[in-house]
Amino acid sequence: MTTRIGVTGATGRMGREVLAAAAEREDCDVVFAVNREPAGDATVEGVEIEPAAEFDSLVADREPTVVVDFTGPESAVDYVETCAGAGVAFVTGTTGFDDEFEALEAASEDIAVLHAPNFARGVQALVNVVGDAVQDLPGYDVELVETHHNGKRDAPSGTANRLLKEIEANGDFTERTHGREGDAPRSEREIGVHALRAGDVTGEHEIVLAGNHEEVRLTHRAEDRGVFAAGAVDAAVWIAGQKAGWYDFADVISE
Ligand SMILES: NC(=O)C1=CN([C@@H]2O[C@H](COP(=O)(O)OP(=O)(O)OC[C@H]3O[C@@H](n4cnc5c(N)ncnc54)[C@H](OP(=O)(O)O)[C@@H]3O)[C@@H](O)[C@H]2O)C=CC1
Ligand SMILES: O=C(O)C1=N[C@H](C(=O)O)C[C@H](O)C1
């Protein structure tokens, strides 16, 4: 069966990649793509880019099975609420959520919603191993360093926040220290968190565990945004058959 996909943020860094990834597959069709203020005759991968102001009517008229969203927290909430009203599943890789996250969770009572801060399969593997490493090395200092391109808005990254949750769930930590400056010795049970923004780095996450005169470094490096887009399109095809509820990327790759 063909999955009918609507794409938001379609001229953004990730939106373009999603359109390219979808174009490579025979089991999905892009039925519309929107951006906030598209140039008059804009197309990406042969798909016409339409104004985001028309999102609601496009959902009603083109009947997507699922919307794939890489935009910002506020727009993601607007889009998921429309999808919830129309019975259309929603896959989002948007990060930087604060209170807006509650609206995503609420929508999952009516439709299938999948949020993943990182659609790279290697990051899922990293999430799986980091908890074991922290458990196996009690008392070791833990620091997390993430590096992204200079256009990224949110810090720390959504992936870093996900990894931090995993570290905290598996060790005895009391605080996160964001950066370090001046007379600022490390306390025993803190996790240092460092966000670098430079050039066109696609996305790197490194966890350093150090103690006992030894050091372990767990690193994921995305070399191409296509990795995230391919994962998001896999998720879109997968979610088409799911009932209302909250899902993450682990659900997709465990099948
Ligand atoms: N989960 C994952 O695997 C990944 C997640 N991301 C996340 O995806 C998101 C987008 O990243 P990226 O593509 O690099 O960002 P870009 O800035 O390149 O693109 C964002 C797109 O969203 C649109 N947009 C932003 N805010 C709004 C709004 N309020 N209303 C309507 N449209 C809006 C932008 O429109 P306009 O052109 O008008 O500004 C643009 O098209 C970020 O949160 C990022 O962290 C990124 C990579 C991988
Ligand atoms: O903004 C990006 O580029 C990325 N954002 C995601 C995040 O915040 O974790 C995932 C990836 O690292 C790229």
TrEMBL record:
InterPro entries named among the record's database cross-references: DapB_C, DapB_N, DapB_N_CS, DHDPR_bac, NAD(P)-bd_dom_sf
Enzyme Commission number: 1.17.1.8
Keywords: Amino-acid biosynthesis, Cytoplasm, Diaminopimelate biosynthesis, Lysine biosynthesis, NAD, NADP, Oxidoreductase
Enzyme class, UniProt record, top EC level: oxidoreductase
Signal peptide (UniProt feature, chain positions): none
SUPFAM superfamilies, per the entry: Glyceraldehyde-3-phosphate dehydrogenase-like, C-terminal domain, NAD(P)-binding Rossmann-fold domains
Active site: 148, 152
CDD domains the UniProt entry points to: DHDPR_N (cd02274)
One BP term from GO: diaminopimelate biosynthetic process
UniProt: NAD(+) binding residues: 9-14, 93-95, 116-119
Dihydrodipicolinate reductase C-terminal domain span: 122-253
Organism superkingdom: Archaea
Subcellular location(s) of the protein: Cytoplasm
NCBIfam families: dapB
The protein, known as: 4-hydroxy-tetrahydrodipicolinate reductase
